[in-house]
Write a structure and sequence with these properties.
globular; binds uridine-5'-diphosphate-glucose; UDP_glucos_trans; about 15% strand; Glycosyltransferase; 17 helices; alpha/beta
């Protein structure tokens, strides 16, 4: 049986995340959970991503193996090995397809490793199923999304609901979940096309077909959060889902006086000061890939200035222009950070009380785990559906107001100011905070001894490692 049951011969697991921060970070957490259960872990990545992985896992026994990433990919600038470094997200699918060039090296490496009990690889690395099958190793797909969004996408796609209305903003009832209403604008290509074809479609089809044929799917969520959708997946979809999250709870948060390693110390000192002054802070960040227009950035700046809240705004390096003198004018109550921060620690800081977020699934989970309600501002990918889940389904946040009321509309500073104030000071803000705290407790319980996610991961290990003894 598996090592968790007292076996002396530890089992060996291969982890291979997609090269995107939002897909890699949860698998780093999963690595720790597997180590706690005395499994041996080998982590695959590429040379340019190694430092990020190493920084996270250097206190562990995980072996990190680099596979060269081809520098001869049309449309991808040489040296780019992670989606957050792409000059434009329009290159995302070309980048995703280029990962297949790693397959021969991956397979050569697998042959040199001690016997592998199972592989966990990202859904976007669809070709790893073929590799796993060659060596008769069960492959688990790692799913970066939640059950709600994957179920709603599947339901509207199967019932072809998106092609009924004329307008992109008309509300559509999701027949299989009739309390949920969506618009075509909540979705992206290929789902919005009645006869999809081309690069994106082929990529998504490769991902879905390989997912369906895999041994199981690991979902970074917990059963109690979205049981209706987890049950739907279990009943109607393939492969079998295993809910093992929130993975961000795999490591305990750092104590307030613990050194912050190489994270920007001044940011935490600034938060400490805000806490000592009795001020609550709005944290603003839009993940690792979202592209925001200069006009929209400037509007955010005005909204923050007018709302008079204390804020910490993380922007990507490429977005360094905001507006004349903004930072100087707001310096007593707000800071703009242009470097990588430890978002989880920031959300856990006592002074951070609200989060203006694009609703990337990791950000949502990290916010929930910290008991911080969300002001949802979805921008791309499945984020509009995550935002609906946050606001309408689990009710741990409010939605930012767009100028035309549409899902992807421009947000004017007045709409931002109004919703920021409502979340920070209004009645609705208090309600969602209360709800958020309740969900936080459930999330923690799921990961504790006897909790649903902890038990599920134990079962998964028993199930797979038991077969390879
Ligand atoms: O300075 C930073 C910036 C980001 N993060 C972390 O980076 C991750 C970002 O992940 P997420 O919030 O999910 O956003 P994206 O990077 O945009 O994630 C992509 O991947 C997610 C998981 O599949 C999807 O839900 C999103 O739509 C997709 O854009 C989170 O763990 C953050 O804590 C930091 O720690 N520091």
């Amino acid at each position: 049986m598996a090592s968790i049951t007292g076996d002396t011969q530890p089992h060996h697991v291969v982890l291979f995340p997609f090269m995107s921060k939002g897909h890699t970070i949860p698998i780093l957490h999963l690595a720790r959970l597997l180590l706690h259960r005395r499994l041996i872990v080998t982590f695959f990545t590429t040379p340019a991503n190694r430092p990020f992985i190493f920084e996270s896992l250097n206190d562990t026994t995980v072996t990190i193996l680099d596979l060269p990433f081809s520098h001869n990919v049309p449309d991808i600038p040489v040296g780019i090995e992670s989606t957050d470094k792409l000059p434009s997200m329009s290159m995302f699918y070309a980048f995703g397809n280029a990962t297949k060039l790693m397959q021969p090296d991956f397979e050569r490496a697998i042959q040199t490793l001690p016997r592998v009990s199972f592989i966990v690889s990202d859904g976007f690395l669809w070709w790893t199923l073929e590799s796993a099958s060659k060596f008769d190793i069960p492959r688990f797909v790692f799913c970066g999304m939640n059950y709600y969004s994957t179920s709603v996408i599947r339901a509207v796609d199967q019932d072809r609901l998106l092609f009924v209305p004329e307008s992109d903003d008309e509300l559509i009832t999701v027949t299989r979940f009739p309390w949920i209403k969506v618009t075509r604008n909540d979705f992206e290509s290929p789902y919005t096309e009645s006869e999809p074809k081309g690069l994106i479609y082929e990529f998504i089809m490769n991902v879905i077909v390989a997912e369906t044929k895999s041994y199981g799917i690991i979902v970074n969520s917990f059963y109690e959060l979205e049981s209706v959708f987890a049950d739907y997946w279990n009943r109607e979809c393939q492969p079998k889902p295993w809910s093992v999250g929130p993975l961000c709870l795999a490591e305990p948060p750092k104590a307030r006086d613990e050194p912050y390693n190489n994270k920007p110390k001044w940011v935490h000192q600034w938060l400490d000061k805000k806490f000592d002054q009795g001020n609550s802070v709005l944290y603003i960040a839009f993940g690792s890939q979202v592209e925001i227009s200069l006009a929209q950035l400037k509007e955010i700046a005005i909204g923050l200035e007018e709302s008079k809240v204390n804020f910490l705004w993380v922007i990507r390096k490429s977005e360094s222009e905001i507006s004349d003198g903004f930072e100087e004018r707001v310096k007593d109550r707000g800071i703009v950070v242009r470097e990588w921060v430890d978002q989880r620690e920031i959300l856990m800081h006592e002074s951070v009380q609200r989060f203006l977020s694009h609703c990337g699934w990791n950000s949502v989970l990290e916010s929930i785990c910290a008991g911080v309600p969300i002001l949802a501002w979805p921008m791309m990918a499945e984020q509009p559906l995550n935002a609906r889940m946050v606001v309408e389904e689990i009710k741990v946040g409010l939605r930012v107001e767009t100028c035309d009321g549409s899902v992807r509309g421009f947000v004017k500073w007045e709409g931002l100011e109004k919703t920021v104030k409502e979340l920070m000071e209004g009645e609705k803000g208090k309600e969602v905070r209360k709800k958020c705290m309740e969900v936080t407790e459930k999330a923690k319980k799921a990961m504790e001894e006897g909790g649903s996610s902890k038990c599920t991961l134990d079962l998964l290990i028993d199930d797979t490692c038991g077969k390879t003894t």
